Amino acid sequence: MSTSTVNYRNGTQRSSLRTQSSGSTSGGQKPPVKSKTVLRKSSPAALGGGGSVSGSKAGNTGDAGVPGRVRVAVRLRPRHGEELIADADFADCVELQPEVKRLKLRKNNWDTDTFEFDEVLTEYASQKRVYEVVAKPVVEGVLDGYNGTIMAYGQTGTGKTYTLGQLGEEDVADRGIMVRAMEDILAEVSLETDSISVSYLQLYMETVQDLLDPANDNIAIVEDPKTGDVSLPGATLVEISDQHSFLELLQLGEAHRFAANTKLNTESSRSHAILMVNVRRSLKTRDGLSSESNGNSHMTTKSLKPPVVRKGKLVVVDLAGSERINKSGSEGHTLEEAKSINLSLSALGKCINALAENSSHVPFRDSKLTRLLRDSFGGKFCTARTSLVITIGPSPRHRGETTSTIMFGQRAMKVENMVKLKEEFDYKSLSKRLELQLDNLIEENERQQKAFVDEIERITVEAHNQISEAEKRYANALEEEKLRYQNDYMESIKKLEENWSKNQKKLAAERLALGEKNGPDITSNGNRSIASASEEVSELKKMLQKEAQLKMAAEEEVNKLKHQLTELKKVEASGNSEIMRLHKMLENETEQKEKLEGELATLHTQLLQLSFTADETRQNLEKHSSEKTSGAQDSLSQLRLPQIQDPGNAERLPVARLFEQVGLQKILSLLEAEDADVRIHAVKVVANLAAEEANQQQIVEAGGLTSLLMLLRTTEDETIHRVAAGAVANLAMNETNQELIMDQGGIGLLSSTAANAQDPQTLRMVAGAIANLCGNDKLQTKLRSEGGIAALLGMVRCGHPDVLAQVARGIANFAKCESRASTQGTKRGKSLLIEDGALSWIVQNAKTDTSAIRRHIELALCHLAQHEGNAKEMVKEGAIWELVRISKDCSREDIRSLAHRTLTSSPTFLTELRRLRVDIR
Ligand code: ADP
Ligand code: MG
Q1: Pick from 198, 237, 197, 234: nearest CA to 219
Q2: Annotated Gene Ontology MF terms (predicted)?
Q3: Which of 183, 783, 809, 900 is deepest in the core (most CB within 10 A)?
Q4: Cα-atom radius of gyration of the chain, to the nearest Å?
Q5: Spatial distance between the Cα atoms of 276 and 199, rounded to a whole number of angstroms
Q6: pLDDT at 524
Q7: Residue 859 in contact with residue 818, Cβ under 8 Å?
Q8: How many H-runs (helices) and E-runs (strands) does the chain carry?
Q9: Ligand 1 center to residue 11 CA distance, Å?
Q10: Residue 887 and residue 291: Cα distance in Å, rounded?
Q11: How far is the CA of 268 from the centre of ligand 2 (A)?
């Protein structure tokens, strides 16, 4: 457009544009009252109460959000040409679930974080729908006399300008928010009584430039301390009366923006573009036209009421690219530039946080951008409604920027709102469980100890009793025997004495008789007495014999008792050795208990350390993302720690600290813990670490890969299989590790895991790992000969699309390497895939509805077809018809043309096509 169609002025004077087109209605303008009614219906219910940041969350129930809260929509840009080719083998880094307003951010092969937004706009969302959900409620508020802001935040190239500033001159369906907002405003106002004026500005390095008047390049921002109104008295203000002049103004602004940026030697992605639309409406209160907002007919009587004027301001901000400016050298930025370029975005983040947290101080004054937005942005002057669109791209290569954009959006939605479903390690409950186990062990040990002591006491007492009883018995028996002896002896003596005295008497009597008679009888008498004496002697002999027998029996008894006593002594001795043995057992038991307690204590501290570090990691991540939310670090940290500006590095820092504090060795040692829970937690920690590329080398060097493979070999636990296979899959992303995995028999282990697993997630991990190995040119033959391809094909039995996608990816990777090898002449003969029977599965699944599977299969077919050695088989199995179909219908242009090329360059295919008269041109 030429400036002659529009006269520009500063301040409040009217421009001729207004006069020229005054009264003319632009095309499609609806009668004011009617359209007003239509618009009102969809107005958010409680917009007037805006500003109070309520604690409740906007539900999924339509448009009526929480007044005052920033409403946040996320919009995904479709893949563009370069991404279609470069990222063909990779899944998008996000998955959108618009029906539940959720976004899943893929962290690695199997792990995702889930976030909730007010609106989730997929790559298919039309500009009209985006306008309706993001901007329309704000525009309606502006027409009702409130201020409103619509902002787009995101990495350069993700569609901010497309969303906000697209003019749609070629295709009306492409019109962006600015154009559609003006259409709605124009349709609503009555140009006789109302006015619309527009300023268009650029904010670059904390300087406000007028995009409608390039000479005007340092505009002051003025705030009315009483009303809080923000104005730019120095900025060109253009009255708008029709859509056409507005479009011309936008084009002119864009042209000036381009020129200004060329002059400053910068890109427009480094500056913020700000469109300000002031709507001033007079509400008629006379002649029966009561104010629409009162709507009562009795108001007509108050005919002398002064006219009511409603002023609303709409600010649309196309923010600078949110990517960090960290390569100041390569992009020609000085540090000063980088600092002030980041400043406004960072201040915006801080204000959003402060508003979201209902903080008493909102640092609006920190930057020009936030000063400009102050009265349109809730908070103290609470008459505003704000919508934020965060734009993201699908490419996994920009995962870092995408994550930081998502975190900014989440912050803007309000901190408590953050819905983040995340698998976390519940260290607390594990530690509690271990504590319980420890307590149980201690109790059990105490019980056993008590039982031992009791038993020993019992045995000791029993032995003592036995001994003392035996002693008593022996003593009694001895005493008895002694008494009996004595008695017998005494009796014998008595008898002997009696006999003796009897004999003496007899002898004396005999002698007397002999002496009186003096006679011849002496000899016969003497003979008689000798005979009785010998009788006596034999009797005595007998008695003595009896005596000797008795003595012998007594001696025998004594011997028997002696024997009994030694037996008892033996029993006592063995009782003692039993006691000793029990004592020793007790000592061992105590020692073992101490060792166990020590181990548990170590485990305990390790777990505490782990959970402490995990907490810290989480906090760091949150802190880090909030720093990212602020858009940039402050100037100090930029000066001191330039290396932190690499976002990848910064994200990895807390994980690096996990290594330092807990020690990788310790974590790896827990993989062999006895407690299955500890093992599971440890393998999860290792898997999480392995998901970070920066940790992979360290993990492998510390023997982590070997331990993971060992787990696959030795454990039966499915969870461990799943997690360990996932970790191996991640480690298998790098070529050196792929070779290590193969060297350590990894493919055999993965194959047997695949054969035994039922859980689709386990199979997905295993298939993912094998698929990675399939992409290594050097490992092709070994992989196949050790059953890798067979294992991959075996997993299709599960039928889960995620597993099939990994299988298809593996096949595509393998086919790609093969086709490379055949181009280089290092491979001859049929494809190993075909030899292992993959072709029929490929053909069967080539038409699947799951796009991730189909894309890989299509690529695999194209790769296989590039090698003439496969052509015959491909004709025989019908793969040629899939190629024909791909060359005609595939939605991806690059694959379509690849299929076409392969078909037309193979003599076998050409012959077959000619034979069947199929034309593929
Ligand atoms: P930004 O302003 O964030 O740097 P652009 O709006 O310039 O990004 O978008 C970059 C490119 O992507 C442009 O070519 C644009 O047309 C295209 N693009 C962005 N979003 C979409 C979309 N939703 N649909 C189609 N093309 C898009
Ligand atoms: Mg842009």
Answers
A1: 234
A2: ATP binding; microtubule binding; plus-end-directed microtubule motor activity
A3: 809
A4: 51
A5: 5
A6: 58
A7: no
A8: 33, 15
A9: 35
A10: 64
A11: 7
Residue 610, CA distances (Å) to 107, 723, 813 in order: 21, 18, 38
Neighbours of 568 (CB within 10 A): 19
For 867-900, write each residue's pLDDT tens digit. Answer: 888 999 999 999 999 999 999 888 888 888 889 9
The verdict on whether residue 155 carries a ligand-binding annotation is: yes
Q: Report in angstroms the alpha-carbon separations of 67 from 140, 181, 383, 454.
A: 14, 20, 10, 75
Strands of 112-116's sheet in order across: 94-97, 102-106, 112-116
Report residue 699 as tokens.
């993990």
Among 275, 277, 276, 273, which Cα is nearest to 204's?
273
Distance between CA atoms of residues 85 and 893, nearest Å: 9
CA 902 – CA 547 distance, rounded (Å): 131
Task: Please report the pLDDT score of residue 222 as a whole number.
Answer: 93
In the block, residue with structure tokens 């901010």: 160
Alpha helix positions (H), 276-396: 335-356, 368-373
Annotate 617-629 with DSSP letters as a single string: HHHHHHHHHHHHH
Q: What are phi and psi of 391, to 5 degrees?
A: -110, 135
Q: Please name which of 117, 113, 78 lies closest in space to residue 99, comparing C-alpha atoms.
A: 117
Cα–chain center distance at 323 = 24
Beta bridge partners of 113: 105
Structure-token pair, residue 511 = 């002698």
Q: Tell me the C-alpha distance between 71 and 65, whole Å.
A: 7
Q: Which H, E and C letters describe 130-143, residue by residue?
A: HHHHHHHHHHHHHH
Is the whole model's pTM more than 0.90, yes or no? no
CA pseudo-torsion sign 436, 439, 441, 444: negative
Distances (CA, A) of 166 to 269, 276, 666: 15, 16, 56
Picking from 456, 463, 464, the residue whose alpha carbon sits closest to that of residue 583 is 456
CA count, 13 A, side-chain hemisphere, 141: 33
- The protein residues having their C-beta less than 5 angstroms from ligand 2 (an ion) are 160-161
Which structure tokens are listed for 344?
A: 């406004």
End-to-end CA distance of the chain: 45
Q: Which ligand 1 atom minimizes the distance to the CA of 125? A: 23
pLDDT reported for residue 53: 30
In three-state secondary structure terms, 94 is strand
Give the residue carrying structure tokens 């479709």.
Answer: 78
Q: Is 158 annotated as a binding-site member?
A: yes
Q: Which atom of ligand 1 is nearest to the CA of 165?
A: 6
**What residues does 207 pair with on adjacent strands?**
204
